[in-house]
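User: Teach me something about this protein's shape.
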Amino acid sequence: MDVSKEVQFLEIDQVKVPKDIGFLIVEDEEDISELMKDTLSEMGFTGQVTLAESVEKATELSHLENASYDFIISDWNLLGLSGLDLLISLKSENRYKNTPFLMVTANDNVSGMIVAMKKGASDYLVKPWTMEELQSKIAISWSKRLPKLPL
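Assistant: First, the predicted structure itself:
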């Protein structure tokens, strides 16, 4: 997020979310990741949206020197390592410990989601999702980030 210019916000469910935040979307189904990217644009987000098809690729991207992801959205069920593996890995790093992390799953497995929340997930989104559900989950996740970032 570039702080040298005036920050513009989207107000979602009474939560102000900067329009220019950068997203990392981790999803192994290309059509779903592209749909999510397009939906973020339709919602009014203007920041960089980076797509990764695996935990390994997401990890590689997240460790680039100039990487700056303000929000991470990851599918739980990925080929190879899972979204939970990525969550645990990234939340162990100072760089990402306060970054909102939205877990997406096809299963409405409450016990699994409780584990993810205890490991640092901000919230979870069940597939298939609507734009309104995604908006709401982004607002909830953004409002939970710690420490609270100045607006």
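Now, about its shape. Strands lie at 9-12, 15-18, 23-26, 49-52, 71-75, 101-105, 123-126. The chain has five helices and seven strands. If you'd like, I can walk through any region in more detail.
User: That's plenty for now, thanks!
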